[in-house]
Each structure stands twice: as structure tokens, then as C-alpha cells.
Amino acid sequence: MRAKACGHRVILLLLFLLLPASAVAELRVQGLFEGRALFELDGERLLLREGETGPDGLRLLRATSRSVLVEYQGRQQEFTLERGRFGGVYQRAQPEIRIQPDPQGGYFVRGLINGRSVPFMVDTGATLITLSEVEAERLSLSTAGGAEVPVETASGRVSGRRILIDRVQVGGLELNRVEAVVLPGDRPMTALLGMSFLGRMDMRNEGSVLVLQVR
Length: 215
Description:
Elements: E1 9-17, E2 25-33, E3 36-41, E4 44-49, E5 59-63, E6 67-72, E7 75-80, E8 96-99, E9 108-113, E10 116-122, E11 129-132, H1 133-138, E12 147-153, E13 156-170, E14 173-183, E15 191-193, H2 195-198, E16 201-206, E17 209-214
Parallel strand pairs: 10-15, 11-14
Antiparallel strand pairs: 1-2, 2-3, 3-4, 5-6, 6-7, 8-17, 9-10, 9-13, 12-13, 13-14, 16-17
């Protein structure tokens, strides 16, 4: 393919997409035009115009003779032509959840502990996932052998039991072996999703929305 006066350039870009399967998909940009781009996705060629969507959700957002902005696997990324070639690695977006605040500005989300449903309140001030003794019993979580730890609550200092939860899921996010503390009685009424879980995630705010994403 030859370059033309209109600014059409031929380039070859290999983007490695990190997929859960063992095979690695290949996305190649074979040609750039103003407002269009020629791709090769898993051996299939396709020409997309700005705004068009191709196989597997590949979408061309913007194209010039020197750069291309694409959306693929839920993520946007731009590649710029420098010294006649493209560079960069396109990684598949990690799973994320988006939590809307309630009218009081709190963040509540339903999750699973060892496969059993649990309502959580997101609390970055809690060092560990925090459960009441009543909730722990409902979830069949044993505190036997758990180390005694002092915990500051709104009612003062109490002694809790530190335990290890096998599996915690919130939306599409899942972690194994997550530390938690069980407090005596029925408080907190709602389990606190603390930093033993949140600290292993990337957190950001998009406006009022709280976004949690696997690292």
C-alpha cells in the first residue's frame, strides 16, 4: 500500500490484549486515514469510520493520519504515530463496579461472603471488614481461635475477634483470604466493607460515583 498526498499513511501496530483465555488476541492497525482506520482483528480485516463499531465491541472513536483512539474491552486508549511507528500496550480493562451514593452520601453495596449474601457499607475508616457477632453466626463464620483485638466504635472501645474469610465478592470483584473482625452483639447493623478489602482495589471517584477496580 502506498502513501498518498491526502495524508494516508500505512502503519503496523500490534496490540496485545490480556484475555482470560490462554490464547492472545491480536489487534493490528494497518492503515490510517482522516476519519477512518483499517484494522486486522484476529486475522480479519475491517475498515471502520469514526463512531462505527466492529466485531467484539471494537469501536473507532477518532482517527487522523497520525493517531487513532479506540475503545475495546471496555477501555479507551490512544496511540500516536512517532517517528513512523506506533508504540504502547493495550491492556484489557480490569473488572470494576460503580457505586452510587445514597441520599445521605453513603455508599452501600450488596456482596457475598463465602457465597452468602451480605449488605455492605463502604467504610474507608475501617481497617478490616467489620461484622457483628449476630451477622457472623448467620454466615456460619467461626471466631474460635481468632485473636482478640481492641476496636474503637461510636460507643467506645470493645474487644473483637480477628478472623480470616475465605472469599469475599462484591459485584464482579472477588478476593480470597480477607481479614475481618467480629464485634460482640448486633452492631454494626450493616457489615462494613473496610480496607482489608478496599486496600487491595483501586478506588476513584467519578463525580459522586465511587469506582472500585481490580488492580
